[in-house]
Amino acid sequence: MFDALADRLESAWKKLRGQDRISESNVQEALQEVRRALLEADVNLQVVKDFVAEVKTKAQGAEVIAGVRPDQQFIKIVHDELVAVMGESNVPLAEAKTKPTVVLMAGLQGTGKTTATAKLALYLKKENRSTLLVATDVYRPAAIDQLVTLGQQIEVPVFELGKDADPVEIARQGVEKAKAEGFDTVIIDTAGRLQIDQEMMAELARIKQTVQPDETLLVVDAMTGQEAATLTRTFHEQIGVTGAILTKLDGDTRGGAALSVRRVSGQPIKFVGTGEKVDALQPFYPDRMASRILG
Ligand code: GDP
């Protein structure tokens, strides 16, 4: 586990010959290595600073464990802290007391939001939970067709009113239909723009206000690295999210966005996307992500 960081820490300690326990002086060098590892994993700079400060406090206060090398002890402290920040365990999708559970998908264009919408429906289908998908992205010509095609592929119905309808109205009617027809879940795909703009946020806020979702999931592209923190902050402040889906983890990113998203929003990452295929969605596990981030 954490081979790359483990190797670096070992060499950091070797330089400090004779130091057989965690102390003020040797911890500095080790913290530098952690800082470097997190920045290489694309964790947001401020998040790295806060994280390193916390690890420092914990490491300096740590009891020396007999027979355990200080570098190993230090790695465990870093690992445990990463897991703690990312939420200890997997947090499943919310389930409303009365059907349907309403899930609102939010995020920028190109992040994999529409794909994640279908992936989530397929994931729920495998758990025998029925889903109605709702297409409200009337701005991007192919967006509705894309969801309809994905729906056909996974054999999950898609509600749409064409591209001339009002997105808020589509969402409202979609939820009504899901309620009337006894679906377990309704997932609303919303418009994403290339950049955050006020109009998009205002529309999303209106949809949210209208359908009162049980979950508002922010879809974040793991490849955006540092940017993930800014994006999450904006969406969380303006809309309020209850969780996130981190996509494109099959890419070569170490996934530092996971730490940033959780830290900035305080909300759990619920799923990760690991490919373009519609079944490439997995629950998020903090301990696995900690290993990946540390490399
Ligand atoms: P949207 O604009 O946010 O709705 O994004 P789309 O769902 O249309 O996805 C944008 C592109 O990202 C498409 O080419 C998807 O196939 C691709 N994509 C989505 N999720 C993943 C993922 O987890 N891994 C990879 N490699 N590609 C993905």
Automatic annotation (TrEMBL):
The keyword Manganese does not apply. It catalyses: GTP + H2O = GDP + phosphate + H(+). It comes from the Bacteria. GTP binds at residues 107-114, 189-193, 247-250. Residues 268-281 form the SRP54-type proteins GTP-binding domain. It is an enzyme of class 3 (hydrolase). It is found in: Cytoplasm. Its EC number is 3.6.5.4. The keyword RNA-binding applies. Keywords: Cytoplasm, GTP-binding, Hydrolase, Nucleotide-binding, Ribonucleoprotein, RNA-binding, Signal recognition particle. Composed of three domains: the N-terminal N domain, which is responsible for interactions with the ribosome, the central G domain, which binds GTP, and the C-terminal M domain, which binds the RNA and the signal sequence of the RNC. Involved in targeting and insertion of nascent membrane proteins into the cytoplasmic membrane. Binds to the hydrophobic signal sequence of the ribosome-nascent chain (RNC) as it emerges from the ribosomes. The SRP-RNC complex is then targeted to the cytoplasmic membrane where it interacts with the SRP receptor FtsY. Belongs to the GTP-binding SRP family. SRP54 subfamily. Part of the signal recognition particle protein translocation system, which is composed of SRP and FtsY. This is Signal recognition particle protein. It comes from Floridaenema fluviatile BLCC-F154. The lineage of its organism: Bacteria, Bacillati, Cyanobacteriota, Cyanophyceae, Oscillatoriophycideae. The gene is ffh.
